[in-house]
Amino acid sequence: MQNQDFSYLYTEEERARFDWCRREQGGWNYRPLFSIVVPVYKTPVRLLDEMIGSVVRQSYPQWELCIANASPENEKLCEALEVWQQKDSRIRVKELSENGGISANTNACFDMVQGEYTAMLDHDDMLTENALAEVVWLLQEQPETDFIYSDQDMLEEDSSKRFNPLYKPQWSKDCMYAGNYITHFSVLRTSLIQKIGGWDPSTDGAQDWDLFLKAAEHTDQIVGIPRILYHWRMASTSTASSMATKTYALEAQLRAIREHLHRAGESQADVEFYSQDIFKIQVKWNRTHDGDISVIFLDEDESGDLATQIAMVRVMLQLREREIVVVSRSRQRLDSLKGKEALVGERCRGLCVSFANWAEGYQAGAEEIGCTQAVITGTDMDAADEATDEEVNRVSETKGEILLFLTDGLTALRRKSLLELADWAVYDKVAIAAPKYEEENRVIREMGIALTTDGPVSMFEGCFTDGTTDCGKNYWYRDVTAVDYHCFVIRRELFDQVGGFSTGEDGGSNLRMLDFCLRLRALGYRHMVSPYAPVHLDTTGRKMMMCDQFRTHVSENAWKAFCEKHGIGEQDPYYRKA
Known about the structure:
Layout: H1 12-24, E1 34-40, H2 45-56, E2 63-69, H3 75-87, E3 91-95, H4 102-110, E4 117-120, E5 126-127, H5 131-141, E6 147-156, E7 162-166, E8 186-189, H6 190-196, H7 207-216, E9 222-234, H8 248-263, E10 270-275, E11 280-284, E12 293-298, H9 306-316, E13 321-328, H10 331-335, H11 341-344, E14 348-352, H12 358-368, H13 389-397, E15 402-407, E16 410-412, H14 417-425, E17 430-438, E18 444-446, E19 449-452, E20 455-458, E21 468-469, E22 472-473, E23 478-480, E24 487-491, H15 492-498, H16 509-522, E25 526-537, H17 546-553, H18 556-566
Parallel strand pairs: 1-2, 1-4, 2-3, 6-9, 12-13, 12-15, 13-14, 17-25
Antiparallel strand pairs: 4-8, 5-9, 6-7, 6-8, 10-11, 15-24, 16-25, 17-18, 17-24, 19-20, 21-22, 23-25
């Protein structure tokens, strides 16, 4: 058993946090037992020792380590496990007669579990010494939590240094359809794993991913701790090193997601790799959208050929739109559409109104197609119920059930970008589905908007579209707090439910989209961005992304009042950087 001093891996601030956790836990009333399950198979003894040592050093002492050893022929490994058992009675080892695969071996560990919570740890990873303490600290405040995970980073195989941190979003269901961002160290209520039925051997290689998706089918009490609590070993046979070493996992990943969607009632859905080079996963919803999409096109800047822009939208919708309402201040531009039905379609009509900003223009277009006309502020839903019988009849008699809002100056960079958004907008508790804004050189302009007390932030701005950042892969689906107004899709019923865009924001139209997004989130809905719906916004003229407009037009006092109204804090739940 080698030297177990790894203090050199941690900063002074991190070591101070370790000390704080040791002092603080003396006052905790709730002290659950954690069962840490670790299946072991052909694990190098040094890495095994370092993994077990990281558990033994936990500042929170109520734990048991349940190890299933599937390498009974490995004498050195068996001897090392025996030494640890003699050293600490909390370490329990079950010798298996053979290797049954990762899921079967993990289930063997789980058979030994006695704790209220079960924690998963890989056989060559390391925990920070405050890992369990941080979980218990969270449970003091949120005892109803069923599923907990944390940030992570990588550890060199020789334990010489840490690198590549991953700052994870709070629970992001849609992100899980592209990548298992939670990975190894995770803590679930033991009764929840029992209800699920443990780990499924048919998903070996993606067994934890499958378990997490099943867990989310039974609970929404899922919380991410925004601290690095474990180090994922960069071993030669680890998925941290190369998926090429575990090619069997690829089909298991697709199967886990596909079967989850089928259980959710999406029987027509399929999942496939969009790119085998970097293993980009895409959900194929296989919806028809025949006549269920109403388009509100805002001629905001009155630039470019209007008929050509409308034709482009129709192509991106595969000619499946129910209707298109073109909102413009210019009667002349609307008149230019006459006689061009071959381009704009027979279901395209113009609406000439004098709007002061995009929110007024969008609202006028929505009212034109029969959406609720009451415009409300805050989260008071009473006003949304005051539509007249005539207005209700207009909604029920006509129009699509999906609303697509978009402005001029927008170019879809993929043929089915807009249909991709319509697919997502009718799934589960998704309220708004939005595109990825991308420059022509494949650099991301925005993938959703993060909100903090410092102001709104364009997520992943300046990153390569297929790259990786400290917040994960840039090609994952993303759950987000807010989106830009230039292009988004929402179900008609949800737009009606909140009454459209509010009018009472001191920051004017620059805050109305954020307010709209937050009012929907307050009702329990979420927003998402699809990387498979790339668009380009031409900003060479007056057109600006919403975050750029904010910096120019919203005062510090207006933003402070907005944050207080909506409870915006120092960190966005879905996007954090060091």
